[in-house]
Amino acid sequence: MRIRSRLLGVGAGVALAALALTGCSTDPAPADGGKAAPAADEGTFAKDADTLVFVVLPDHEGSDQDAEPIADYIAEITGKKVEFFEATDYTAAIQALASGQADIGQISAFTYYQSKNAGADISPIGAQITKEGAEPGYYSVAIKNPASSASSLADFADQPVCFVNPESTSGFLIPNSQLLKAGVTVPEDKQVFGEKHPATAALVAEGAQCQVGFAQDIDADPLIASGQLEEVDRYLVPAAPIVLQNALPQDVKDALFAGLQGSTQKSLTDKGIELNDFLLNGWFGFGAVDDAYYDTITAVCEQLPDVEACKA
């Protein structure tokens, strides 16, 4: 079963900075604040052998609630309780994985890269499929307010640009890579952050703080369809992974790989799990991927050495 108790990520920025200074620790910080994480079958857990701690990237309001059917399914396939680690921001999610406070994470391509750089010993189980019948992957959409005269990324120069946040794959990293290809560098004083994808798309639609920007397709497309935004271009992004700690017992890892790779909406409903609107409209399963699938992110960070979030 899945239970609703929360493990709160406190002081994540400080903790992540400490991880970066110390490198890969041989003993992950336990989730209970001092006791060694219990072991079973030559593996370790963030909390105990009966519980899996699940961290979800807070990229929109209610992200934990939207992931509850996934948590219920994980509980079904493993026979364990699933608790959410409450990540207050992207950094808290990274820290939870790097410190061993979370067993499983549903994150982004960029936060997978950042988590590994921070010392997380994790592997992708699968990557999110956002359209029925498609392969894993989604789009970063360059958007503009209808009042804007911009027709290409080159026209984004010398004006405020709305991004999601500095740790966002489709809302910051990929956009900056594409802007650089177009010969555009956005100075810090012209970077506006909406923090979450829906809020960022809304900022561009409002047009007060910025008239151009970027958001993921699931949030940009409805506003484009309604005429509140116009599309300038879109760029394919490696799909958001669901990851596990390599330190988990082998039988737990086997259950997670077997149950999640190739899973679909039907996999959940067949077990009596009700899908919410978020999953019905934007999650169609997890496709199998490996670590090499995310080499694109490494390449982009090498292209953007001055992006603070790319630094180890």
From TrEMBL:
| InterPro entries reported in the protein's UniProt record | PhnD
PROSITE patterns per UniProt: PROKAR_LIPOPROTEIN
One Pfam match, given by its short name, reads: Phosphonate-bd
As given in the record, the signal peptide range reads 1-20
Keyword hit for RNA-binding = no
* Keywords tagged on the record: Signal
Q: Give the superkingdom in one word.
A: Bacteria
Q: Which GO terms describe its biological process?
A: transmembrane transport
Q: What are the GO cellular component annotations? A: ATP-binding cassette (ABC) transporter complex
Please give the NCBIfam families that the UniProt record associates with this protein: 3A0109s03R
Tell me which family the UniProt entry assigns to this protein: Belongs to the phosphate/phosphite/phosphonate binding protein family.
Protein name, entry field: Phosphate/phosphite/phosphonate ABC transporter substrate-binding protein
Top-level taxonomy? Bacteria, Bacillati, Actinomycetota, Actinomycetes, Micrococcales
Primary gene name: phnD
